[in-house]
Design a protein that fits this description.
117 residues; mainly alpha; ubiquinone; 4 helices; EC 7.1.1.2; transmembrane; flat; membrane
């Protein structure tokens, strides 16, 4: 019991020392006007920092992320060709592609892919 308390205390002290050292070393003291200004972001820094974005930018980003994840899910289909039965592999691949196409059709039908409304 004493050794467990001793080890816990040592662990607690070492972790707090790391936190203290990292907070001391990571402080930035030289704040320059140029460092605080945006760098080629496309917006006028003299205007308000909270410029409302079109919701369509957000929707396109979400659609991109969804299709990016779907592409990552397609990659394991190719190596599984040699490990499984061709009939099962073909049915699984076709089912997955149909699901992707149905998702694309739904987004197209909801006019999510149109840039202007």
């Amino acid at each position: 019991m004493k050794i467990m308390f001793f080890m816990s205390t040592i662990f607690f002290l070492i972790s707090n020392a790391f936190i203290l050292i990292s907070s001391v070393m990571s402080k930035k003291t030289n704040l320059d006007r140029e460092k605080c200004s945006p760098f080629e972001c496309g917006f006028d820094p003299k205007s308000l920092p909270r410029i409302p974005f079109s919701l369509h930018f957000f929707l396109i980003t979400v659609i991109f992320l969804i299709f990016d994840v779907e592409i990552a899910l397609i990659f394991p289909i190719i190596p599984s060709f040699t490990m499984t039965n061709i009939y099962i592999w073909f049915k699984t691949s076709i089912f997955f592609m149909i699901m992707l196409l149905l998702g694309l059709y739904h987004e197209w039908n909801q006019k999510m892919l149109n840039w202007t409304y």
